[in-house]
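User: These chains co-purify. Model them together.
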Amino acid sequence: MFAREDRLVRWHLLIAFIALAVGGLFGPLQALNRMGISLYPVLGISYYQGLTLHGVLVALVWTTFFICGFLIFVTVRSLNRSLVSLGAAWIAFWVMLVGVVAAGYAILTNQASVLYTFYPPLRAHASFYIGLTLVVVGTWILSAGLFVTYRRWRGQNPGKATPLMAFGVLVTFILWDLATLGVAAEMLFQLIPWSLGWLGGIDALLARTLFWYFGHPLVYFWLLPVYVSWYTMLPKQAGGRLFSDPMARLAFLLLLVFSVPVGLHHQFADPGIGHGWKALHTILTFSVAFPSLLTAFNVIASLEIGGRARGGAGLFGWVVRLPWGEPSFAAQALAMLLFAFGGVGGFINASYNLNLIVHNTAWVPGHLHLTVGSAVTLTFAGVAYWLVPLLTGRQLWHRGLALAQVYLWFFGMALFSFGMHWAGVLGQPRRTDMATAVYRLAEWSVPDLFTGVGGTILLLSLILLVVNVAMTAFFAARGAVVEMPKAEPAGGAEAAPWIFERWSVWLAVTAVLIVIGYGPVLFELVRTTTAGSPPFRVW
Amino acid sequence: MRVDLYEKVWIALSLLMLLGFLGAISVSVFVHGISLPGAEQRIDPKTVVNEPPFATPGIRETGPGEYEVYLLSMVWSFVPNEIRVPAGARVTFHATSRDVTHGFTIHGTNLNLMLIPGLVATGTATFNKPGEYLFICHEYCGLAHQTMAGKVIVEEKS
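Assistant: Joint model of the two components:
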């Protein structure tokens, strides 16, 4: 079943894991650098070139390729029909891959050490911007194919509720397509023509604003596929059922509605944007936290059903009975635990006032590693532990090492992010070559120790993950019998309100909120734009 | 749509928590006067160094215990990079960049600004305790970003 789609999924996962392996290796170097140990002279590259590789490969390439592959896999099984055009999906894959190679060329030749936020007027080689744009174009092609596949399914199944997995996929890609409009505008109207010398100047503030219009919903693009697994698969892996199917749909829809007009909370410290707009984005960011609070209740209640079915009793006895010895379950449950702390930190980041204390400090990457580095990456590792055997027909190479990997990631990340948050509160800047900084405060040395030790444990965990996945994919014994976990709803096929299936309504509400949250801000920036800045290459 | 009783309680508590946070933020803004940079006029980053006030960056006294600093940032330094004030000084910083985007934060204060070419960022800090306050660039601005720093020296009142 779906052998042709699965081949495409395998290719996506291959690129994803190569990106994670290469990009991930630079992470521990950065953690050690904060401790004062710089290995960059040995490698012959700068801290910032390594940091750009880490950010682009891990935050952009690993996530995007894994998500596209995983969501193709989920869509065809959830709707039980093939992609309407497998050819278009392959074209999408190749466009993305060509984009990665083009951007990778610029980074590896040190022509694009601009970090993964690429704020102008730092100017990278044009192939960096064109390459990243191609990655986005590829995802658009794929999403169009998935939407048409859904329309076909809808045509043949009138009146039927969309399967929850497919529901999550649709929200993910609608959100992504809306969010990428911002970065596409930045690329097409600003960065690409400017980097080619067709434009003399660039408006740095407008570019930042377009970037963050995209940059915050980007994190929900990472997170929504995780929620697909937590809602529709993990309860089954825990031996339970999904507590509430309609409330899961509500959470997905609220994430769609609120996730775009929140990006200004990355720009609280920027001049040129009015206080009222910053305050509005604080409120909207708090609103987008609400569906994650719904998710916490629903998913934990689902796990409780599993724990009790496995014989757990009492208030917390069910927690102990959960399958903590299963790598796939443990990875996702621990990812959830780390994400809870990420959520708490997120409230602080989004707070109009508290943001002043943490903006651009080590706190922020500390937070990001609890979200994309744990909630997302550790969940994807957990998914890979069943998905790779299913796709290759080979058994998981080493279950014990998989389990070790999961717990090492958890403890390594706990130490690392604790150190980073702590140093951040003490004012240590983010993405700075601290080993050679002219200021190194004594009060940072203990937090830096946590950061460095945590990063080293994460390196070990990363190696275990990559080796295990590679061995499973290519060398392990054949004969794996694996099924996609699919959680049934506890309330049976309880119908969600009809309005949950009216995509036009939700798109309209989303569009209105985006126009309110961003319309006047962008209009004012475009209206007052000036000749702007010439390009700088200062690395 | 049926919503479980416990879930209703959870939803109510979640909403209360969010409203509580927003209330606390409002208090800090309207009672304690926490402020962020706001709307600003655009300037030309290419000519900013040729025209006043950034042609002559530095500190000036605007009233008893009140100062303003025009601070210019560039790859990879601040001008001025040493600022002397007496204890108790209330200092308003007006800062911009003549090249790439920089950041500006003073250790031990709440001052935290992005210095974006084409805009002047403004923020205020009060220095009550004598001593040296490190300030640094906190936005990546090139190969020697980690060397971009300065200090505010707060002297005992004479």
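Chain B has a mean pLDDT of 95.
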